[in-house]
Design goal:
alpha/beta; Rossmann fold; Glutathione S-transferase Yfyf (Class Pi), Chain A, domain 2; 2 domains; 6-stranded antiparallel sheet; 6-stranded mixed sheet; 11 helices; 24% strand
């Protein structure tokens, strides 16, 4: 899988930009706040139709412009796809090969990416919401059905929480409405949990192998999906019944809190080294090595699931890693993975730049080939 070209118009601080990308490594060099990360953000948009940074789509429109446009050509499975995305003050439009897609899920999946940014080091030492977001992003680009179930679940959860906040008016009609939302929450939530469990099981296999290589076999990394509703060997029906029962048991407490206390929106991934929780007992070095292993495993898992390596986006992450971890990351790329790197300095990248990288200098929204 290769992203051949990238074009931007009125996106963030770019009035207009047209780039041809190396099939191997493209490096964007520049000081902070010049627009390097904006380029990677636009690539992520072509993959997910969603930003990892913006709270609202309108934030990505250049100041003074009415809309933004992001376009790219993707080579995949010996076919070429043109992807483009228009962002407006309210909403966006997406097209594949010039044909508008009414559903975002029909756009997502033509380009797969793995983003590794400094905040991804929080995968291990951050809160559960960081790991849930990681699950949702990666599963979303591999499975449109997961994305649909997640979207429906989030909408139902919001409706249920709105009712729970109306605690002063608990009558039969309100409880009847709550029961309807509960059934939908169980339906979509059960599908989300089972898909996440399957994903984490596969990720565990790849990350454990990679971690052994990085640590020369000295430590064992394990990942486990933590869900209060799951029991060993659960069938979908058993999981759904337990979810339904827990919603009923916790109903009074949920009314008191004004929020739903059980479901996949409360789940987590536990990361352990040699059986010990890395978040609590791991050193900073162990936490970073575990995060690096998970991100490299993500690349291998996507290749396993879709048949091709994703595009790797490294957003100023090399400066956060010591020389040993940089080496493992760059070795993990090999020549199989197209990689886009942003950095403020080129120290440690000299050989890469000489042998196979295209280098661009970025300054105040202007990009020039070095």
């Amino acid at each position: 899988m290769r992203l051949q070209t990238l074009e931007l118009r009125d996106f963030r601080n770019y009035r207009s930009l047209s780039l041809r990308l190396s099939p191997q490594v493209t490096i964007f060099v520049g000081q902070n706040a010049q627009g390097k990360t904006n380029i990677l953000e636009s690539v992520l948009l072509l993959a997910l139709a969603k930003s990892h940074r913006a709270g609202r789509d309108a934030e990505m429109i250049r100041w003074g412009a009415e809309s933004a446009w992001v376009s790219g050509k993707v080579e995949r499975s010996r076919r070429t796809y043109s992807l483009d995305l228009n962002i407006f003050e309210r909403g966006k439009k997406v097209r594949v090969n010039g044909v508008e897609k009414r559903k975002i899920s029909d756009f997502i999946g033509h380009l797969n990416v793995v983003l590794f940014a400094p905040e991804d080091l929080l995968l291990v030492k951050g809160g559960p919401q960081v790991r849930r977001r990681f699950l949702d992003i990666e599963l979303g680009q591999m499975s449109p059905q997961y994305l649909h179930n997640l979207s429906r679940y989030q909408k139902v959860l919001q409706q249920r929480n709105n009712i729970l906040k109306d605690s002063e008016r608990v009558d039969s009609g309100l409880l009847g409405t709550l029961a309807v939302w509960d059934e939908q929450l169980v339906e979509y939530g059960t599908k989300i949990i089972r898909k996440r469990l399957e994903f984490v099981d596969k990720l565990q296999q790849f990350s454990a192998e990679i971690h052994k290589r990085i640590t020369s076999g000295g430590e064992e990394l394990t990942l486990e999906y933590k869900c209060s509703l799951l029991q060993q060997g659960d069938s979908p029906d058993a999981l759904a019944d337990r979810f339904r029962a827990q919603l009923a048991v916790r109903q009074k407490d949920d009314f008191r809190r004004g929020s739903t206390s059980v479901g996949p929106h409360r789940d987590d991934i536990e990361v352990r080294i040699d059986g010990k929780d890395v978040q609590t007992y791991g050193s900073q070095g162990q936490q970073r090595t575990a995060a690096l292993s998970i991100k490299l495993a993500e690349i291998e898992l996507i290749r396993h699931e879709v048949g091709e390596y994703p595009v790797l986006l490294l957003d100023d992450v090399l400066s956060e890693l010591d020389e040993m971890r940089q080496l493992h990351l760059l070795d993990g790329m090999g020549e199989r993975v197209q990689t886009l790197i942003t950095t403020t300095m080129t120290y440690g990248l000299e050989q890469l730049m000489r042998e196979k990288a295209v280098v661009y200098r970025v300054r105040n929204g202007t990009v020039s080939e070095s």
